[in-house]
Amino acid sequence: MGWVYSIFVLSGFSALLYQVVWQRSLFAIFGINVESVTVIVTAFMLGLGVGSIVGGEVSKNPRRPALLLFSLVELGIGLFGFLSLPLFHWIGSFTLGLSPLPTFAITFLLVVFPTTLMGSTLPLLVGHSVRASGNVGRAVGVLYFVNTLGSGLAAIASVFLLLGALGQAKTVYLAAAINLTVSLLAWIQHRKTRVRAQGATSP
Question: Once rounded to an integer, what is the mean pLDDT over residues 139-161?
Answer without folding.
Answer: 89
